[in-house]
Every structure is written in structure tokens, then in C-alpha cells.
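Researcher: I'm preparing a figure for a lab meeting and need a structural model of a single chain. I don't have an experimental structure, so a prediction will have to do for now. The sequence is pasted below. Please return the structure as C-alpha cells so I can convert it later.
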Amino acid sequence: MRERVADYPRPPRLERSTRRVRVVLGGVTIVDSTECWRVLETFHPPSWYIPREAFAPGTLRNAAGQSVCEWKGEAEYFDLSAGGVTASRAAWSYPSPTPAFAAIAGHVALYPGKVDACFVDEERVVPQPSRFYGGWITADVEGPFKGAPGTESW
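Model: Understood. Here is the structure written out cell by cell.
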């Protein structure tokens, strides 16, 4: 079933998923989980929030900086490290999210373009075209997607 990101809501919706999510960095699988959440927001491919405990031990390292999302609250950032590779500020989480997003406390999202590969049900993800947004594009998600040059203010 195809999903049109133009039909996703604003404010965003949080949706549980049992699809298999796998992440590879430095040639090492650092995540393999079927217990994730998706955040669906108008004109954005889904961002996937993975349980922190699903990350291989030692792969998440606190990184400098914070940001604020009007919907989810204050974010903290992480470097990801595995197989001799470090991806700087490649992941983030909301340690104390707003009540509407309380379920993603203890979960971590990541930029698919900063790791070797991300997979959903073994389909390789295409990163959302953006330096700021971290959406995951799969064959069942239809654009247009916010994030490419000229689309940041949609």
C-alpha cells in the first residue's frame, strides 16, 4: 500500500510499527528491531524512532548540541560509532517529549544518509533530501518531499 506524504497530518502523528528496521555502519549491523515508532508529518517521509536498547552496545555516544521541535520538545544528539567509523551527530532523541509523543521517550532516530545503510523489511532506504530532516524514503512512500533546496519553507 502506498502512502502519500501530502496526506500525512500536521501536527504529526505517531504510529507504532512492527516492520523490521536494520541499520549498518562501518560494515556492522548496529540496529535490528521490529519495535519502532514512525513519526508521520505532512510532506516528510517517516522518521523512525528505534528503542535505545536495540542499538549495539557502545554505538551511541553523547554529542554536543540540542534543538527544539515545536511538536516533540527538546532533542539531544548522538554520534554513532561502529566498525572503525564514526558518524558525527547522526542520531537524536527526545528524553522528555511532549505528552503527545511520550511513547518515543527512550527511542532514538537517525539520519539515514549518515550511515552505510538503513533498511525497512530489507528494502534499502533512500535518505530524505535535506541536511536537517531525517526522513526515510521507501517504495511505499510517495512525495513530493520537503527538504530539497527550495522546499525548506513549505
